[in-house]
């Protein structure tokens, strides 16, 4: 059961949220969890990673490809579709172990009897361009069936249309739909081949659809297979139509079962690197696995030119843009389980450095100011008016694009984490060092020297809490700027000692500065908001404590329109202490060793009741830090809320008439962070793995594999003991420590047992 997600009835009201819940994908494309007969109105979509288009003046967004798995049934002249006919029975199911989607629908045949329709499909993890499906019908009375199947080119778009010059044709038994995108003129091609396992078919064709009619005998099972392939002009050399056609021919030759086996083998291997077992909590087990599943179906395994957008590959919401969500909320999962994907994610930032340089220059700064909403080129897709006022209908000026400067520090943080976790410092030579230094240069030009207070300050920023824009000295941002400067210096040291020649060459590009000397000056003089000696509280930004003290229920009672924006110039929260999402508390997690448990606890307790969790990036951080302060049961409800966000669909789907739903990969990554970094307490600083478990009261143990510095380990964490097993093939030993006990080395093939003197949740 803990591998299966299921709905056992059909509910029209769940069509859109089920489209998210039942997502499949393989990093190249996402296939929404819609049913075979669904089209654009039900938000059916095959969203392509990294392929963007702008139609007219509308927001630039990813391109959805024509749906090569479209299928509808007609029985004795009546269309059978859950949209038009109430089914007698209906199941929709996702096997997250091997990413296979299934549906089974039973319809009444108008003249008597029943028809059972099944369809299974997957986006191949072994052949990333291929989608495959196996479908059957069986009826209890003889009837005449027409299967309408092929490619649906009427794609769902938010700011489209993106596909022009659409062509549809039949060639060698293959259906082809092709088009070009409007802005970049990129060809997009989809091919489809259906193989019917029975005879007596009458065939007719219309556009990219074929109609197959046959007389079905009661009790017989009629089976057919569909193979679809998608290629675009961004793929390898060759015409996308030809590549797509060859791919479906090759898929059909292999056959469905062989394709499925290959797909399963890849999934088995993926799970073997990350599956996390929770003993004592079946609901948490499924939700955590599901969160990891959502991350794996959108992970770029084969490209370093794309990263993971804030809504994954579940459509075009948020312009398909990549935010800080990736580095701060998703990267940790990949760093512990799939360093190859982690590297691709960081390479994406290296490839988009020029966009970040252009943005810095546009604002008159030096270095690299990364896009708040990044697409293919790294130029910022975020507009200056990113939210519509529900009262006036007018666009509101927002300060996400120009002031969330922490994005550049988040990128640097991600790159350095990658180096620490993998030991693969080649990333620095492949462009990582340039990114780090350019971001440090950006902050050097952004910082303000306050001659009265004799310190550098970071003014006019928006921190993670977007309800308070244009603030000064946001504690989170200042701490991240400090980290960027430290990393810039460490990066120079590392390169100088290990790769002196490359270092000299790279260094030359920065002569004329500002460079290391200036970074040091800024670092030494940078102001960091510190805990108040009496209350231990860290002020989120200058004068935050002067804002109106109001409870969340009181603020909610002031809402006039349920979709009104709480931030901005006259937002409800702007003048109050209510924050959108974890801000100071996230900083406490990132720099955990710089703060005492008392400081963490005081700030958690202060900010928690004042946080609206208006972003899905928030709850996981409160769960994580609750565990870090030894109070996992405070964090558990936040963990479950995060881990189930895409299962329950309990998140905003619309603001006004704007669809903002989709999957929530940052929350998926956050759920993993809360469970593994928080409750299991796995904390790696690049040298030693410290295990500080704080298990929720009904969890007996957590068991998981991790990949650290190229070595594979399996960890079993219980309340009183931690068992570490190192794979025999590891090349070196790694140090592990638990709760203040001295670190011990765990060599290749060794098993290490660390006894925990105190009960796991009692101390930290
Ligand atoms: C959050 C941001 C986040 C973005 C995309 C916003 O609501 O406030 O922190 O990056 O959504 O997930």
From TrEMBL:
Residues 289-673 form the Glycoside hydrolase family 65 central catalytic domain. This is Kojibiose phosphorylase. The active site is at residue 466. Residues 685-730 form the Glycoside hydrolase family 65 C-terminal domain. Keywords: Glycosyltransferase, Transferase. Substrate binds at residues 324-325, 580-581. One of its GO terms (biological process) is carbohydrate metabolic process. Pfam families: Glyco_hydro_65C, Glyco_hydro_65m, Glyco_hydro_65N. Residues 9-232 form the Glycoside hydrolase family 65 N-terminal domain. It comes from the Bacteria.
